[in-house]
Amino acid sequence: MSAVTRLLGGMSAVASAAGGRRRLATVGLSGGRRRLATVAAPEHFLHVGPGGDWWEGGGIYAAKHNPGDYVRSLPLPVGTRVRGDVPAGELRAMYDAAAVDAAWLEPSWSAGDPTAALAAPGRCQLGDDWTPCALRDRVWIADDTMVATFDLPDASAPLGLSTCACVLARGGAGDDGEPVVRPYTPVSTNALVGAFQVMVKVYERGTLSRALAALDVGDAVDFKHIAFNVKIQFPFGAKKVGMLAGGTGIAPMLQALHALLGSTDDNTEVTVLYGSRSSRDVLAEATLDDWCAKHARLKVVHVLSDEPAGSASPHARGRIDAGLVEAHLPPPGDDALLFVCGPPPMYDALCGPRGDADAVTGVLGDLGYAPAQVVKF
């Protein structure tokens, strides 16, 4: 495989020949850094030429050459990318049709196969002191949600975070002028060396999330991990686990599922009730579908609260309620645990405030679940 360098529309690109076509991977022009600053998923395009040469990038490529070299910029759905094995003939067909063939798209991010890369509490690279970690990359997986990859201080070692646990990030400036601190559960495992990934929903008034979305590659964010961030530890000691997640509350569930499904000697049955606003807002859906297909002991039930009328989505409508809990999750008992993570109104409705671990109110309280059976992430 050979490589040549071209200048395309003011953007440096590397073209590598493969199978009679070239995929052109964009890189930055200033100090090796790409400008990523945005607070919502930017427009993303498949740029393809008549011969099948292609690359992905932001902005419409305005070709000023003869018609034989004309490049078409075809918009890609948020959270997708073009598969690396797309044949040149399919690319030429997309060029002729001036439209992307969804059959040749894949999710822009995946959690990969379930991986039980476990570490004991106290082994995390991040400790009690704030440690700057540089942004390596950012991938938008929904209109308002991204997965950000940060470099670790020791590039030769994994994060070393126990399961289940989270890290703290700080940034931006709150009303008092001080940096805002928020918890994030990494969606990567300790199999990733030298970096970790967090899933971030960017809120309109979210000081820290907007600051994270506006970072450039190479900019640093302070992180730390304290003993309070260590939650229930795997193995969880239950025959059945029910998970109630809303939005990015799926992140700690992914962490737990990596351990549960990635351990060959674990037989825990798991059901996930996952609430999202609409089918466009379901996060890591392809990952969850894949894990369900490969692991019969995992079931995921999606619930959409604001799906447009007439949608063909097969998912249930409404919100997670007592009926869904009774229909799909294990009943109260010594062999069952429930994990809950989502926005504050979800905690209030289902189990009571996140910070109150000693009481279970709401739907789960009414159904008879005891505090020892409900883990609030």
UniProtKB/TrEMBL annotation:
Transmembrane segments: none annotated. It is found in: Mitochondrion. The keyword Oxidoreductase applies. The keyword Membrane does not apply. InterPro entries: CBR-like, Cbr1-like_FAD-bd_dom, FAD-bd_FR_type, Flavoprot_Pyr_Nucl_cyt_Rdtase, FNR_nucleotide-bd, OxRdtase_FAD/NAD-bd, Riboflavin_synthase-like_b-brl. Residues 128-242 form the FAD-binding FR-type domain. This is NADH-cytochrome b5 reductase. It comes from Aureococcus anophagefferens.
